[in-house]
């Protein structure tokens, strides 16, 4: 993946299986965001990008979304003048009314706080509530694969707990496959079964999350342990 002549990601090969949650961990500037933006067609890319056996390398972002890939970007990118419900309606705009109502019920069960805040303008919400809205908006579109960029960024630990508990519920009950990029390696490895380590735009390690959590080199570099 590149921006003009600058190559942000190179030599990265990874897969996400059905019902699987996979993490990409790495330091700030490693290329994690560029990796997801490349998948979504938001950055120039070379090589092969496939979803359900079909190449999506030539598709535009809205076509990739319609193919079934949902993307929660870093920074949430909400519309500040819209209410929580209006944001969610954007995500479910292609659904019929009955299906949309069912999705509202599902997402509100996952994030009860949004049911209480559904009439509130998003710019007046806390950072954690805004993150919930960003995830909820994508879930309204029934994604077959969920890409998430730094979902814990800037959130207090108790709000991180709530967000990650919801993601764990999605993983366990709905079986939605996830590709999660995080600088907070401990959170990501705790949720996901497998992980890749991205350094300077290249994948340097991969393996089961438990093995990476127990690896002294990973502990030292990403978990704040000597």
Please tell me about this protein's structure.
Helices cover 41% and strands 18% of the residues. The chain is α/β, with parallel strands linked by helices. The strands form three sheets. The protein has a six-stranded mixed sheet with strand order 6-7-8-3-9-10, sandwiched between helices. Strands 1-2 form a two-stranded antiparallel sheet. It starts with a strand and ends with a helix.
Structural class by SSE content: alpha/beta
Strands ordered across the widest β-sheet? 6-7-8-3-9-10
Largest sheet: 6 strands, mixed
Helix percentage: 40-55%
Number of helices: 10
Which spans have pLDDT < 50 for at least 5 consecutive residues?
A: 1-6
**How many strand segments?**
10
Quaternary state reads single chain
Quick recap of the structure?
With 226 residues, the protein is of the alpha/beta class. The chain has helices spanning 32-39, 61-67, 84-91, 97-110, 112-117, 127-139, 157-174, 185-191, 209-213, 216-222; strands at residues 2-3, 6-7, 21-25, 50-51, 54-55, 69-72, 145-149, 178-182, 194-199, 202-208.
């Amino acid at each position: 993946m590149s921006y003009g002549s600058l190559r942000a990601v190179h030599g990265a090969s990874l897969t996400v299986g059905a019902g699987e949650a996979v993490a990409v961990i790495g330091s700030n500037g490693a290329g994690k965001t560029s990796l997801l933006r490349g998948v979504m067609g938001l950055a120039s890319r070379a090589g092969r990008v496939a979803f359900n056996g079909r190449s999506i390398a030539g598709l535009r972002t809205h076509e990739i979304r319609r193919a079934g890939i949902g993307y929660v970007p870093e920074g949430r990118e909400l519309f500040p003048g819209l209410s929580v419900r209006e944001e969610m309606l954007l995500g479910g705009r292609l659904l019929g009314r009955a299906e949309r109502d069912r999705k509202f019920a599902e997402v509100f069960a996952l994030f009860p706080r949004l049911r209480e805040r559904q009439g509130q303008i998003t710019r007046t919400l806390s950072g954690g509530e805004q993150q919930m809205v960003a995830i909820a908006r994508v879930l309204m579109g029934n994604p077959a694969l969920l890409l998430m960029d730094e979902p814990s960024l800037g959130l207090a630990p108790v709000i991180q707990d709530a967000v990650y508990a919801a993601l764990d519920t999605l993983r366990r009950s709905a079986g939605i496959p996830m590709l999660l990029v995080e600088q907070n390696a401990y959170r990501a490895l705790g949720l996901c079964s497998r992980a890749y380590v991205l350094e300077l735009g290249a994948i340097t390690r991969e393996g089961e999350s438990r093995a990476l959590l127990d690896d002294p080199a990973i502990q030292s570099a990403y978990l704040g342990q000597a």
